[in-house]
Amino acid sequence: MARAGVLLWDLRRLCRVLLFLSQFYILSGGESTDIPPYMMKCPSNGLCSRLPADCIECKTNFSCVYGQPVTFDCTVKPSVTCVDQDFKSRKSFVLNMTCRFCWQLPETDYECSSSTSCMAVSCPRQRYTANCTVRDHIHCLGNRTFPKMLYCNWTGGYKWSTALALSITLGGFGADRFYLGQWREGLGKLFSFGGLGIWTLLDVLLIGVGYVGPADGSLYI
Q: Could you give phi then psi for residue 143, rounded to 5 degrees?
């Protein structure tokens, strides 16, 4: 009986050692549990036709007629599951979309990077090269990331109403120019008493029509 008890204790100890080694093997990467990056965007068991573009692969035809409805044969990527209208699991399906390249999409279908280094208030109005990315649920032809020339459209928090009010009331002391960050012009107006009133009247007109803006080149709010 004593020998049986010793054998049973040794067996339990061996099982614990094996369990520890198996867990260590998994945690050390011996058994791959990596999830593809695109899986974060792919809903489980959703409609195949509504899957984001990163979740599917389609056989596209670039010779289709622009603006016309077109259908493409698509398959889901590995580890992605989806269903059809009858809630049956599918690996391949037909995708209905409009024939157009990604850069031809309306502005509401993609997001673009912004720039604070260009002059939004200038004549002519400046543009900058933005990097645009199509939204996940929108399907189109070609690269989903593309460059596009956009007008400078950013604000530094300056209010047009405040600038105009300062120009009317305290413009002779350069308060409007100081508010807009134009320190040299502000000092010029301060020591010349608003250019003997002429500069003050001109600034009221120029700020009123929006010709004079913030020194950083941003738009009014």
A: -70, 135
- Rounded Cα gap, residues 1 and 50, in angstroms: 68
The per-residue pLDDT of the chain, averaged, comes to: 83
> What pLDDT score does 108 carry?
92
Token reading at 132: 């645009």
Closest Cα to residue 192, out of 162, 171, 161, 206? 171
The model's confidence at residue 206, banded by pLDDT at 50, 70 and 90, is very high
**CA–CA gap between residue 83 and residue 54 (Å, rounded):** 17
Closest residue by Cα to residue 47 from 110, 79, 95: 95
What are the beta bridge partners of residue 58? 74
Residue 211's Cα: distance from chain center in Å?
Answer: 31
Report how far residue 212's alpha carbon sits from residue 208's, in angstroms, rounded to the nearest whole number.
Answer: 8
Sign of CA dihedral 210, 214, 218, 221: negative
Kindly report, residue by residue over 60-99, the tens digit of the pLDDT: 888 889 999 999 999 999 888 888 888 888 899 999 999 9
- Alpha-carbon span 18 to 69, nearest angstrom: 60
- Cβ pair 79, 43 in contact under 8 A: no
CA dist 95 and 58 (Å) reads 8
147 contacts 113 by C-beta, under 8 angstroms: no
Q: Give yes or no for a contact between 119 and 152, defined as CB atoms under 8 angstroms apart.
A: yes
Task: For residue 142, give the DSSP letter.
Answer: S
